[in-house]
Design a protein that fits this description.
The protein has 334 residues and is of the alpha/beta class. The protein folds into two domains: 146 residues, NAD(P)-binding Rossmann-like Domain (Rossmann fold), CATH 3.40.50.720; 175 residues, Dihydrodipicolinate Reductase, domain 2. 37% of the residues lie in helices and 23% in strands. The protein is built from ten helices and 15 strands. The strands form three sheets. It has a seven-stranded mixed sheet, covered by helices on one side. Helix 5 links the parallel strand 5 and strand 6. Helix 7 crosses helix 10. The radius of gyration is 20 Å and the shape is globular. The structure holds nicotinamide-adenine-dinucleotide and 1,2,3,4,5,6-hexahydroxy-cyclohexane (INS). The site of 1,2,3,4,5,6-hexahydroxy-cyclohexane has 6 residues, from helix 7. Belongs to the Gfo/Idh/MocA family. This is Inositol 2-dehydrogenase. Homotetramer. It comes from Intrasporangium oryzae NRRL B-24470. It is an enzyme of class 1 (oxidoreductase).
Amino acid sequence: MTVRIGMIGPGGMGQAHIDRIHSVIAGGRVVAVSDVDEVRAKEVAGRIGATAHPDSASLIGSDDVDAVMICSYGPAHEVDVLAAIAAGKPVFCEKPLTPTAEAALRIMEAEQAGGRRLVTVGFMRRFDRSYRQMKALLDSGELGETLMVHCAHRNPTVPDHYTWDMAINDTAIHEVDTMRWLLGEEFVSARVDKPKKTSLRFEHLQDPLVLILETESGVRVDDEIFVNCQFGYDIRCEAVAEKGTVSLADQNAIEVRDGSGHRNSIARDHNDRFWGAFVTEVQEWISAVSRGEHTGSTSWDGYAAACVCDAGVKALTDDGVVKVEMIAKPAFYA
Ligand SMILES: NC(=O)c1ccc[n+]([C@@H]2O[C@H](COP(=O)([O-])OP(=O)(O)OC[C@H]3O[C@@H](n4cnc5c(N)ncnc54)[C@H](O)[C@@H]3O)[C@@H](O)[C@H]2O)c1
Ligand SMILES: O[C@H]1[C@H](O)[C@@H](O)[C@H](O)[C@@H](O)[C@H]1O
């Protein structure tokens, strides 16, 4: 069976997903697209031989669409995820599920009322080979208990529409989810350190910043967020355990030695750095949909990450340590 996918918001991320679905991923085809930018929807639809819908409601309700992918921007996700749940269709929603926990809670409630897990959140780092190897080693217990994790998330630059809170709920959310998964526990508090700001980008951003999180068992995670670092898409992670440390290695495939020296390349963006993770993530989702199963991060993961980000955003405006507020995990997501 070919899963017929409706794509909402085929911008940068959406078109990258379309390209991999149509080139290297098996079992799926994007047959419908919609976008608030109708010109873009028509252009993408024409290029891939899909139907352009005037709005997301028409796409989600179409009998030609088996499953929905949402790649619009964060604040627009909730309404379309709820519509997909109401239509009983599996939905892959790019991160963040929603920019606030309150909105994610509404999604969880609707999904539970429907009685079936339909929502997968696009937290692709869980599918990255190097993070998976790091998790396998930590889970083996060989290094003892994990005590601290040092992360860095650097982007060359961000667009004009990137708002101050996105440093937490759009960027740091990757580490929030990956660390919940890596450590297998929830965060209980957040704090933000605000170093000297870069002069090379927008005044309204606190850039860089360091988000400091603590888990239930006391593991301390620090996450440097520097979204205008100029030089590349640089993702770092080092876990410090009782008997050793494990870090992500440099991700480049080749090294060059010549008259100018010894060097390797630095990834430019998420597609470059996490290409393999995206392919595995979307392939597993399409395969699961065709079997009538759920895979990947759940609405609970989207909600839990949003709760931590809400605390992080509050810590960015009010100084000090902010408690993470979270409901108990419903049995539906156990
Ligand atoms: N996993 C990752 O590493 C990763 C990387 C980039 C983006 N993302 C996520 O993907 C999503 C899209 O990001 P992007 O970089 O592709 O942005 P983008 O601006 O390139 O594309 C967004 C598209 O959505 C459309 N859109 C906006 N509101 C809409 C609405 N209400 N209904 C339909 N279409 C709408 C826009 O017109 C645009 O075509 C965001 O949620 C972002 O956080 C994830
Ligand atoms: O939406 C993007 C995307 O999630 C990238 O992976 C991240 O590095 C950026 O900071 C964020 O703005």
